[in-house]
Design brief:
Blueprint (H helix, E strand, L loop, with lengths): L5 H33 L6 H22 L3 H9 L1 H26 L3 H23 L5 H21 L4 H19 L4 H27 L8 H25 L4 H7 L2 H12 L7 H31 L1
Helix pairs in contact: 1-9, 1-11, 2-4, 2-8, 2-9, 3-8, 4-5, 4-7, 4-8, 5-6, 5-7, 5-10, 5-11, 6-12
Length: 308
């Protein structure tokens, strides 16, 4: 019998359900993001990241302005602890963006998807080490299958996947700082882009001088795609920040397999990157780990409803 008041249990359930739905939407959008970067391969990864920063700031700033929420930004910037967390998360976010865009533009989208396969495992260990999260036996089975799949994927790649590991670690630590920062999702992303703005403008200004003008960005199609990086970047991140505050890091970690699964398929069937049966076997193992973890979550949720 549950000791929690019914209204509290119901509120927690609704928060979890909304977190899962928003998390799923986030990872589907992230899954298809490589297609945008593939169309910008001539631009260069640093320029793409700098443009993403500027356009994301404008997009999120408009949301805050329309909602009359600029006071939240001032409050976040005035709080030293929050500002320190935001500075760290900004650096991690920029590094993650840069590494992943480079992976796609250099024909290594498969390794990029592998990085996001690794990321949930890093999330699990951060959750256990820093947030006191614990796993039951069935969850450990699912995690063990995922770890084995990562090992198989490494064999398929045939080398130490430095890009993948960098992507995994940078985004896992970013998720931790965003989960613990005392700032809303929209406000937090705006503050992060404000912090990154000077570096982004410096790079774009240097590129303007180097190219004697806008260069490739003078192409209306390229310029439009770069402008699209704003909402394409901000919307999933806003959804992620919303979900991560309502779910355990372990749950976020397992949901995240959806995004690299989509990226994995896009890399093979759309971007036409070479693969082998070992990598495909790893993909099947990842799917199995998701089935095990999801089945356990559903059964535990049903038991909690009956107990309540």
């Amino acid at each position: 019998m549950s000791l929690a008041p019914p209204e509290i249990a119901e509120t927690d359930t609704r928060r979890t359900q909304s977190g899962i739905l928003v998390g799923l939407a986030c990872y589907v959008l992230w899954g298809f993001l490589p297609l945008l970067f593939a169309m910008l391969e001539r631009v260069g990864s640093v320029t793409v990241v700098a443009s993403r920063t500027v356009w994301s700031l404008l997009f999120v700033g408009a949301i805050l302005l329309i909602g009359g929420r600029l006071g939240e930004v001032r409050a976040a910037l005035a709080d030293r602890a929050t500002l320190r967390s935001m500075i760290v998360s900004s650096v991690l976010l920029a590094a993650n963006w840069l590494i992943y865009v480079y992976a796609v533009e250099s024909g290594q989208a498969l390794e990029g998807s592998f990085g996001y396969f690794v990321n949930p495992i890093v999330n699990v260990f951060i959750g256990m080490a820093l947030l006191g999260e614990r796993q039951n036996r069935v969850q450990w089975v699912a995690i063990g299958i995922a770890i084995a799949a990562i090992g198989v994927q490494s064999v398929g790649i045939g080398r130490i996947p430095y890009l993948a590991l960098s992507i995994a670690v940078s985004f896992a630590i970013y998720g931790y700082f965003r989960k613990t920062a005392k700032v809303g999702s929209t406000t937090g992303l705006f503050v992060e882009t404000v912090i990154l703005l000077p570096a982004a403008l410096a790079w774009l200004g240097w590129s303007f001088v180097r190219d004697g003008g806008l260069g490739i960005m003078a192409d209306p199609g390229i310029f439009g795609l770069l402008a699209l990086t704003g909402p394409a970047t901000a919307v999933p991140l806003l959804l992620f920040a919303f979900a991560v505050q309502r779910l355990r890091l372990t749950t976020i970690g397992m949901l995240q397999y959806l995004s690299p699964s989509i990226q994995f398929l896009l890399a093979i069937f759309v971007l036409r990157e070479p693969t082998n049966w070992i990598q495909l076997a790893s993909f099947a193992m990842i799917g199995l780990s998701l089935v095990v973890y999801s089945a356990d979550s559903i059964m535990r949720r049903q038991r909690s409803v009956v107990a309540a």
